[in-house]
Amino acid sequence: MLGLIIFALLGTIAAGTKWSDASWTPNLALDLEGGTQIILTPVAENGEDISSETIAQAIDVIRQRVDSSGVAEAEITSQSGGKIVVALPGNPSEETLELVRTSAQMAFRPVLAMGNPTPTDTTPTPEPTESAAATDPAAPAPTPTPTAAAEEPSDEPTKAAPDNPSDTAYYITPAVQAEFDALDCTDPANLTGGVNGDPDKAFVTCGQDGSAKYILGPVEIEGARISSATSGLNQLPSGGQGNKWVVNIAFDNQGTTEFTDVTTRLQGLAATPPQNQFAMVLDGLVISAPSLDSGVIIADGKAEISGTFTRESAASLANQLNFGSLPMTFTVESEEQISATLGSEQLRMGLLAGLIGLGLVVVYSLFQYRALGLVTVASLIVAGVLTYSVITLLSWLQGYRLSLPGVAGLIVAIGITADSFIVYFERIRDELREGRTLVAAVDRGWERARRTILASDAVNFLAAIVLYVLAVGSVRGFAFTLGLTTLIDVLVVFMFTHPIMQLIARTKFFGQGHRLSGLDPRRLGAPESRYVGRGRVVHGPRPSGVEDAPVEDAVVEDEPTPRVPVAVGGGAAGLTIAERRAAARAAEQKAATTDSPVDAPTQESEPESGRTEGNEH
Q: Could you tell me the CATH number of the domain that includes residue 87?
C-alpha cells in the first residue's frame, strides 16, 4: 500500500513535468531564492493624515490579493512613514505585480441578483428525436444540416434607459447573465480583487469569503462619503445596551442625501429580494450585503448594520469601511529585484547540518542495533522520499515554497522519526529478555510500542498546529513541515517498519538471534530457564520458531544445549510462578550435588487432574 502511495506521488509529479509546469524540485521562499520588492507610499487625495489602522487595512487588502493569486511566503510589512514593503519570492507575474500596485476602492452598489458560488449549468437538455436508423436499419444515415456558429451573448440593454439603479431589465443583459452563470467563486483566482468594474454598469463579482456571487447595479455611493464607522453592542429602544454586536456607519452631507434616496427605493423592493439589499464593495469584492428592515427609511445618514456578528467580525467590517472612507492611492516608490536574504550558501549549510544529523542517527543505529539498524536506515529513506514528494507536489499545486525555517523543521523530523523506531525496537528487545521468540516479541512489542508512538506523535502534531495558528511569517513554515513529517512518521512506522519487522523475524539470521543481528537473546540477557506450561521449566535457549507452547508441542532443531524439563506440579491446584521458580532452582541444586544428571521422566501420571504428559525430545 505504501508503495502505491509513493508511486502515485512520483507519477503525478512526472506527469506534471511533462504536460504542465511542475518541477522535480520544490519552489524556494524569499529567504532562499530572492524575488521582487515593491515599496508603496500611500497618498490621501484629500490631504488627511493616514492612520496606522488604515495602513494595516491596506496591508490586509494587498495580502488578500497576493494570497489569492497563488503566491506563497510573501512578506508584506510597514515601515516608518507609513510605507508598505511588499516582497514577493521568485519571479512573480506581471498580473501579480499589478495587483500590488493597484489602489483599493470602496463603493455601494444595489444587489440585482445573488446565487450560490459555484457555476450555474445552463446547458439545455436535448429532447430525444426518432431517427430513420431507429425505425429502418437499412435506411441511410441522415445528412447533418449546417448550422450557424454560436453567437456571443448580447451586451446591449433591452431598454433605452433604466428606470432606476435597481432596474434588472436594463442592467442584466444576456452577456451579464452568462458571466454570472459561469463565475466560480470557489476558485481562489476569482477572489484576488483589484477589479472595481465600470461605475455606470452592472458588475459581476464574488463575496470576499467566496460564499456567494452577485450581480450588482451601478455605483450609487462612493466610499469617500463615509464619515465614520464603529463597532459595538446595539442600543435598545429604552436607551440601554443590548448584547448583539453591530456596526454603526455615518455618512457626510452628500452621502446622507444619496443614502436616503437609496433606502427609499429599496423599501419599495422589499417583496423582491435580493433587490432590497445594497452591497458594500471593497477592492472589487462584496464585504457585506445587508437588507433594510421593513418600513425603515434612513434620512439622517446614520445606519446600524446587524446580523450574526462577533466582536472580531464587527470590528473587521468597521475597519474596512473606515479604509474605504479615505480616498487613498498608492505611489510606487521603488521596484527592484532582491537577492536571497540568506542565500544559497546558508541553504547548503542547512542541508549539510541535516545530512550530518542523519549520518549520526545512522551510525548510532548501526552501533546500537547492528543489522537491525538497517531497518532504521530503510525507514528513514522511505520517509525522506515521501516528504520530498509531498512538498514538491504542494509546491506545484498549492504554490508552497520551502523556507529555511521549513528546512529546520525537516531536520528536526529526523530525530522524531528515529525516536519512533527506537521505541519499537526497545519494546522488541524487552520481550526477548522475557524469553519470547522473535516472532512473538515483534507482535507483543508492537502492541506495547504503538500506543507510545501515537501518543508522542499526537503531541508533536498538536504543537505544530498551535505554532502554525499563532505564529506569523516564516515561523509558520517550520510548523508546517513539522506537522507534515509527523504524519509521515506515523504512516511509515505503521505501513513499512512494522511489516518489515514481521518479515525479518522469520528469517534465519534474525530469528535465531545471530550475534550481529542486534537481537541475540544471550547478549540481551534472556533467561536460560523458563516456564513453558503444565508445571514444567525448560533449561537452555529457546530454538528458532518455537512459540510459548507446552513442551510436548515444541519442536527442537539443532539445539546446542539439552533442554531439561523439571516437574514442578503439585496437585490439581498447581503452583504459583514463584513456587515454580523455587522448585526449578531446587532441582538444579539437587542435580549439581549428585554424580549423575537429573533424568527427565518419560511419562508422569497425575490422577488428581486426569492429565498425562508425553516424552520430550
A: 3.30.70.3400
Q: What does the alpha-carbon distance between residue 117 and residue 206 come to, in Å, rounded to a whole number?
A: 7
pLDDT at 30: 80
Residue indicated by cell numbers 465600470:
198
Q: For residue 182, what pLDDT is reported? A: 93
Residues 272 and 176 in one domain: yes
CB 429 within 8 A of CB 519: yes
Asked if residue 315 and residue 170 are part of one domain, the reply reads yes
Compute the distance between CA of residue 614 and CA of residue 273 in angstroms, rounded to an integer. Answer: 92
The amino acid sitting at 206 is C
Say if residue 352 is exposed, middle or buried (CB neighbours under 10 Å; 0-12, 13-18, 19+).
exposed
SS3 250: strand
Residue 479 belongs to domain with CATH number: 1.20.1640.10
Q: How many residues does the chain have?
A: 617
- Residue-wise pLDDT tens digits, 521-536: 888 776 665 545 555 5
Contacts of 62 (CB under 8 A, 6+ apart): 76, 84, 86, 99, 100
DSSP string over 407-459:
HHHHHHHHHHHHHHHHHHHHHHHHHHHTT--HHHHHHHHHHHHHHHHHHHHHH
425-439 residue pLDDT tens: 999 998 888 888 889
Q: Are residues 458 and 412 in the same domain?
A: yes
CA gyration radius for the chain?
A: 38
Q: Residue 144: pLDDT band by 50, 70, 90 thresholds?
A: very low
* Overall number of domains in the chain: 4
Q: Does some domain include residue 537?
A: yes
373 and 436, same domain (yes or no): yes
Domain holding 31, by residue range, is 21-102+332-336
pLDDT at position 611 is 40
pLDDT 10s digits, 242-259: 889 999 999 999 999 999
Q: What is the mean pLDDT of residues 53-76?
A: 81
Say which amino acid occupies 256.
T
Exposure b/e, 316-328, CB count within 10 A at least 16 = b = bbbbbbbbbbbbb
The values of phi and psi at residue 431, to 5°, are -65, -35
Confidence of residue 442 (pLDDT cuts 50, 70, 90): very high
